[in-house]
Design a protein that fits this description.
alpha+beta; seven-stranded mixed beta sheet; 28% strand
Length: 806
């Protein structure tokens, strides 16, 4: 996006800064300026002169000697070979010591060319008359310039005035990098609004006056929109008694500054309004519109259409067309047709300003291989409320320039008006996001600068429809930041646990899991979250198992990666099997990864993701080795109570007699055990395999890093060993619960140090021996202080059918 700085200054009175200052300030306020081009670069001491007398050169047939009035007391003598000089003409004259941008052939010279007084074939020449190319421009921008020779000013040009200013070259074109969400800034009005807010100056957009005679436009044209989704708004007005002529110089100069070649008043007005309002327009010769009817419809498949550039385009039914009662007359939002183009013979014209679906316009432009200035704007998604404003502005210019008579009224097909948005005004939240302390009143002043309203009763910011980029709290905070000044915002750390220089609590627990696993000889593995439905059969899961209810991937890599896993064992067993089949003898692996549990199928919301700590091993070690790793992890995670184990785990993929649930504080943390031999065989392993799965969200909930310091014991401990005979179905955990419950406050620890089943023990029973340690923190325990809790423990054991071994 480029704009003329003079055009911006016309809408922002009082803006008096250098181009570099303007660029810097606009960039800091969020409208990034990439660079600028000064049209008068390398142009110095160039004035409007009038040729008073021409005489032949005494020594050169192709040169003449001109006496030129440049506004001084005496005319200036200039020798020239230009073929188009005549007495009375007004021309640009470079005085002695001045500079031009380049040569008459259009080549530009860095730093320009210095013109000095000298002699041409013996005759003194005190300057030079210039072609438009020597002034750094060309005939595309100045179509009235001759192909050969010097540029001729109109008779109204004042002699002695700055020729650069007369040509409109005393301007700067600023280039911006506008993001696609700021559609409003793809216009001079939008940039000027930002400039006014940036520099704290008033914004003065064009004042549009009502136009039109007493007639009714509906008597001239009827419009029907068949696809309102692709054309949410269509406006049209009619102008009769058209007078094709060159547009005025001020308009030509502004278009040239935008890089647009002036053509005639009608075409120039449409281009001018497109640049000013960011709203593309199109003009049709109404006499070529069959039935005086406009129909907006989709093209027919393989329909052919010749555009203004003379090229035949083959269309399909996704392309939106502007048609009359018989034929297409334009491709909506891209280019008009050759069959309805404005010519010098036009008498009545139809003006169109519409809003089209941006995505459709972009796709259509790519399909037909043509991208225009209009399509480049439409594809951004224009504000439909801007269409009628642009239309009325164009009709106002028609009347001001005397280009025609505007018919009264307007066609406006706008079935569903686009309204602005409302966002709650939350100044405290904006300050939290930015790390600032800006007063709410100051924020509202910033919003008012960019025409955002405020509803005090509802405490809401009113967002106009043309600010499509403002959607939420963060967007409004950004508006505050850019006008407060990014350079004024101090360095602050975001609030939250992460700013203290440590990991979040969840990540710290995961780090503990890694440390414990690796300390115990496990290596970390990582597997895919995508799996095959065949996994459930390999793990012997029942047909009605909830674990079979998996999220199906819409575009899977293949059947083997077609669902999101609901259990982490397949990846672990696959990795163990790979190692086993490569003859690695002792393997220990762990994984921290998510499983995905849908709340219902088909999905109506995202599935629940739960991190699982999975351990797997074979070779050296057994069931109790893995149990020790689990208890070490729980201890390091600050879960100081002893976990309990429920052998009734009922996991079909684990050995029925060698599995258990891990329970803590009444909650099931996971499970562990030996893999069922059939499952191991399904993974081609002929060795005992042990796995454990722990649900990490529960660990995070129950764990703690709080530690209580206890000093080194000052008094000796007293140990008692109890050897007992108990039924086989009684678990060690049941005995330990009794020891804990009856051991009293001086119970320090206990340990199972022997378990035996054999000939010396009666059938159905087993022998278990515990070492129990008592210690008091403030004294040495006497015999009675130890015997009393031991007696309570023995009594409670006997009540459970457990006897002391004789």
């Amino acid at each position: 996006m480029n704009t003329s700085l003079k055009w911006i200054k016309d809408m922002v009175p009082g803006l008096s800064v250098s181009p570099q200052e303007y660029m810097d300030a606009m960039t800091l306020s969020g409208t990034k300026a990439e660079g600028y081009e000064a049209f008068d670069k390398d142009l110095e001491r160039i004035v409007v002169g009038q040729i008073k007398q021409i005489t032949p050169h005494p020594d050169a047939d192709k040169l003449v000697v001109c006496q030129v009035d440049v506004g001084g007391s005496e005319p200036v003598q200039i020798v020239t070979g230009a073929p188009n000089v005549k007495e009375g003409q007004k021309v640009p004259v470079v005085l002695d010591g001045g500079r031009v941008a380049g040569g008459h052939d259009g080549t530009k010279t860095e730093g320009g060319i210095r013109i000095k007084k000298g002699k041409l074939r013996g005759v003194v020449s005190n300057g030079m008359m210039c072609s438009i190319e020597e002034l750094g421009s060309d005939r595309d921008m100045f179509p009235d310039a001759p192909e050969e020779g010097i540029y001729i000013f109109p008779d109204s040009a004042p002699v002695g005035e700055d020729a650069v200013r007369q040509l409109g070259l005393d301007d700067v074109s600023v280039e911006y990098e506008i993001t696609s969400n700021r559609v409003d800034c793809f216009s001079v009005i939008g940039i000027a609004r930002e400039a006014a807010a940036t520099f704290g100056l008033p914004f003065r957009p064009p004042v549009v006056q009502p136009t039109g005679n007493a007639e009714d436009v509906n008597a001239y044209i009827q419009v029907r929109v068949d696809d309102t989704a692709l054309c949410p708004r269509y406006t049209a007005r009619v102008v009769k008694n058209i007078k094709i002529a060159p547009s005025p110089e001020w308009m030509q100069r502004r278009l040239m500054a935008q890089g647009i070649r002036p053509i005639n008043n009608i075409v120039d007005i449409t281009n001018y309004v497109m640049e000013e309002y960011g709203q593309p327009m199109h003009a049709y010769d109404l006499d070529t519109i069959a039935g005086r009817q406009i129909i907006v419809r989709r093209a027919k498949k393989d329909e052919k259409f010749v555009t203004l550039d003379g090229q035949e385009r083959v269309l399909d039914d996704t392309v939106l067309m502007i048609c009359d009662a018989e034929k297409p007359v334009g491709i909506a939002g891209i280019m008009g047709g050759e069959n309805s183009m404005i010519t010098e013979h036009v008498t009545t014209m139809l003006f169109e300003a519409a809003c089209f679906d941006g995505t459709n316009i972009r796709r259509s432009a790519k399909k037909i291989g043509m991208r225009t200035d209009a399509s480049g704007k439409f594809e951004k998604g224009l504000d439909p409320n801007n269409a009628m404003d642009a239309m009325n502005r164009a009709c106002q210019l028609i009347e001001e320039l005397g280009a025609g008579e505007v018919v009264g009224g307007a066609v406006d097909i706008y079935p569903q008006k686009k309204e602005g948005k409302r966002i709650p005004f939350e100044p405290d939240q904006y300050n939290r996001l930015l790390g600032t302390d800006i007063a709410p009143e100051t924020m509202l002043e910033y919003f008012a600068k960019i025409e955002l309203g405020y509803d005090k009763t509802a405490n809401e910011v009113l967002i106009p429809s043309w600010r499509q980029d403002l959607e939420c709290r963060a967007d409004l905070a950004e508006e505050v930041a850019r006008f407060y000044g990014y350079d004024k915002i101090g360095t602050t750390l975001p609030s939250g646990e992460a700013t203290t220089g440590k990991l979040s609590y969840k990540l710290r627990i995961e780090a503990v899991a890694r440390d414990v696993a690796e300390y115990c000889g496990f290596s970390q593995g990582m597997v895919y979250s995508f799996e095959s439905p065949k996994v459930f059969d390999k793990l012997l899961l029942p047909a009605d198992s909830d674990l079979r209810k998996a999220v199906v991937i819409a575009n899977p890599l293949g059947e083997d990666f077609s669902i999101m896993r609901t259990i982490s064992l397949n990846g672990m067993l696959t990795s163990l099997a790979t190692n086993y089949n490569r003859r690695n003898k002792d393997v220990r692996l762990y994984e921290l990864g998510n499983i995905y549990l849908p709340k219902q199928l088909p999905l109506t919301e995202l599935p629940q993701e739960r991190m699982q700590f999975t351990l797997g091993m074979y070779g050296e070690g057994d069931f109790y080795t893995l149990k020790g790793v689990i208890e070490e992890f729980l201890q390091q995670a600050g879960m100081h109570k002893k976990p309990e184990y429920d052998p009734d785990a009922q996991k079909p993929f684990l050995h029925p007699g060698r599995q258990a649930l891990i329970c803590y504080d009444g909650k099931t943390l996971g499970y562990f055990g030996e893999v069922h031999p059939t499952v191991a065989a399904n993974y081609s392993m002929k060795e005992r395999v042990y796995v454990a799965v722990i649900d990490m969200p529960l660990i995070v909930e129950l764990s703690s890093f709080d530690r209580k310091y206890t000093g080194i014991a000052r008094f000796p401990a007293v140990t008692r060993d109890l050897s007992m005979v108990c039924p086989k179905q009684i678990l060690a955990g049941d005995i330990e619960k009794i020891i804990e419950a009856k051991g009293g406050k001086n119970l320090e620890s206990y340990r199972l140090f022997d378990i035996y089943e054999g000939n010396q023990i009666k059938i159905g029973y087993k022998s278990m021996a515990y070492s129990i340690v008592f210690r008091a923190p403030d004294r040495t325990l006497d015999e009675a202080s130890v015997n009393e809790p031991v007696s309570r423990i023995i009594q409670a054991l006997e009540e459970k059918g457990i006897e002391l071994r004789k």
